[in-house]
Amino acid sequence: MTPTLLTGLVPEAALTAEEFGDVPDAWIFPEEAAVLHRAADRRRREFATVRHCARLALTSLGRPAGPMVPGERGAPSWPEGVVGSMTHCDGYRAAAVSRRIDVAALGIDAEPHAPLPPGLLRRIASPTERAHLTELSRALPALHWDRLFFSAKESVYKAWFPLTGTWLDFREAELVLDPYRQTFRARLLRTGHDDEGRPLHTLHGRWRVGRRLVVTAVAHRVAAAALGGAGAAATAGRR
C-alpha cells in the first residue's frame, strides 16, 4: 500500500490507509448508518471517510470489508480474525488493520500538533508525568509534548480495551516518552490480561510529528509461543 504517516509506527504485518480530507463518495452500510440517525453532517462525513480508510486497508489485507458498527465504548467491530484501529481529527482520517495471528491488538491516534486546552493535562497526567513533560519541553520546545502525551494515552487505551474488555482511565497508564527514538512506554497500573491469558504490565508504542499532526500507535504483539504454531505456518506461506 501507499506509505502513510502510520508507516513504521505499526508492525510490518499491519496495513494502513489515510485521507487528509473527507471522501465525497465514501459509502457506509445500512447497519452503520443506523447509528448516525441524529449525527451532524460533519460527523457523518468523518465516520464514512474513516471507514473508507478501514475498508481500503482490509481489502489490501485480503479480508472482506463488512459493516464496522461501533460497539461498547465506541470500539469498531472488525471481521473475524482481524484486529484494527481507527482515528480522525481535523484534516486527517486513518485506519490500521492486521491479522490477529500476527498482531494481538492495535491502537492508533492522531491529533493536531497544538497545545492541549488549558487544564486538561492536569486531569490526565500524574505529577510524575507532568514533571517528565516539563523536562521534555525544556529540552525540545518546538514539540507540543502535552498533545503528544494525550495522543499516546489514547492509543494505549485503544489497544487495551479490545484485549481486556475493561475501561482504562488516563491515570491508570503511566507514560514515558523517548524523544530520540520516538517511542513511548506505558506502565499499566490496572490489572489486565490479553486474550491469550498473559498479564499486561506494559504497552509500547511509537510516535511521529508531521504535516501539523501528532500521530501515535501501539501494537501488542502475539506471543512467541503462538507464532511457533499456526502463526509461523502462516508467515511461511506469505514468503
UniProtKB/TrEMBL annotation:
Highest taxon of source: Bacteria
Annotated residues for binding of CoA: R43, R51, T87, H88, D109, E154, K158, L168
UniProt KW keywords: Magnesium, Metal-binding, Transferase
InterPro entries to which the protein is assigned, alphabetical: 4-PPantetheinyl_Trfase_dom (IPR008278), 4-PPantetheinyl_Trfase_dom_sf (IPR037143), 4PPT_N (IPR041354), Enbac_synth_compD-like (IPR003542)
GO biological process: enterobactin biosynthetic process
Binding-site residues for Mg(2+), renumbered to this chain: D109, A110, E111
GO cellular component labels: enterobactin synthetase complex; plasma membrane
Protein name as catalogued: Phosphopantetheinyl transferase
Organism: Streptomyces venezuelae (strain ATCC 10712 / CBS 650.69 / DSM 40230 / JCM 4526 / NBRC 13096 / PD 04745)
